[in-house]
């Protein structure tokens, strides 16, 4: 096995080589050309694929989960079809795109109801199972910890401009930069109730923000008071709240998927 850590291999040619089982982490493959390549069983995670073009490919079995803005299959843009089907399967999903304060209140209320059922499902499992990862994804407890981070980052750090909105149990995304003062304890194993207590505090912050907000306030320009998203421009209150809604919605689906397997 060869280790190519911290090396510049740009412009290299790999012809008739076997890279099966190789790991590419924080690797730049911009402009790479893949021709007559076998990617069977490949796992691609947290990867940016803007402008990728695949022609003459054979796709017997392919799954894509992520934020998709444009996806063309054999000349047909299927993005709208996929979005419509997801809304049809779960009508509450359409409520996660609110444009008014009342709409945001309704969306968070819907999430409260859906998450309550998911938490009850989690409580039916042994405590150890809630710390167990499925297929390399976060455990149930880690998922809740990450949502705590999302609330702190976007609501506390941006909407409320709090320079230190963190809780010791907050968990940034895996590829996040390490920042002094921001908690990132991967080994701690808090109980479900401990994490839910933090979650309740974060939910009350959202409720306070919405209680003092009118529709005009949704367009108020904001910027991050923390190192995260500090370089983001053109943010407003509505955008930040929608990020949290999306995080809550998607991660509950992931949690439900993994709880079903753990059960």
TrEMBL record:
Residues 111-254 form the DinB-like domain. InterPro entries: 5peptide_repeat, DinB-like, DinB/YfiT-like. It comes from the Bacteria. This is DinB family protein. It comes from Nocardioides zeicaulis.
């Amino acid at each position: 096995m060869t280790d190519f850590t911290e090396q510049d291999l740009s412009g290299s040619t790999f012809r008739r080589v076997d890279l099966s089982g190789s790991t590419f982490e924080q690797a730049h493959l911009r402009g790479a050309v893949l021709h007559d390549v076998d990617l069977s069983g490949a796992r691609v995670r947290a990867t940016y694929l803007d402008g990728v073009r695949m022609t003459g490919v054979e796709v017997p079995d392919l799954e894509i989960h992520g934020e998709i803005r444009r996806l063309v299959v054999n000349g047909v843009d299927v993005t709208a079809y996929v979005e419509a089907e997801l809304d049809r399967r779960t009508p509450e999903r359409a409520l996660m795109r609110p444009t008014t304060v009342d709409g945001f209140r309704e969306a968070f209320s819907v999430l409260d109801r859906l998450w309550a059922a998911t938490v009850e499902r989690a409580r039916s499992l042994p405590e150890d199972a809630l710390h167990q990862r499925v297929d390399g994804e976060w455990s149930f407890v880690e998922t809740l910890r990450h949502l705590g981070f999302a609330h702190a980052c976007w609501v506390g750090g941006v909407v409320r401009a709090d320079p230190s909105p963190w809780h010791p149990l907050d968990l940034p995304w895996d590829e996040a930069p390490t920042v002094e003062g921001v908690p990132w304890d991967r080994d701690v194993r808090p109980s479900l109730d401990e994490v839910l207590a933090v979650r309740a505090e974060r939910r009350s912050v959202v409720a306070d923000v919405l209680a003092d907000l009118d529709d005009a306030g949704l367009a108020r320009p904001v910027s991050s008071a923390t190192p995260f998203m500090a370089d983001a421009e053109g943010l407003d209150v509505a955008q930040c709240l929608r990020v949290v809604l999306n995080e809550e919605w998607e991660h509950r689906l992931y949690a439900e998927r993994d709880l079903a397997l753990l059960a």
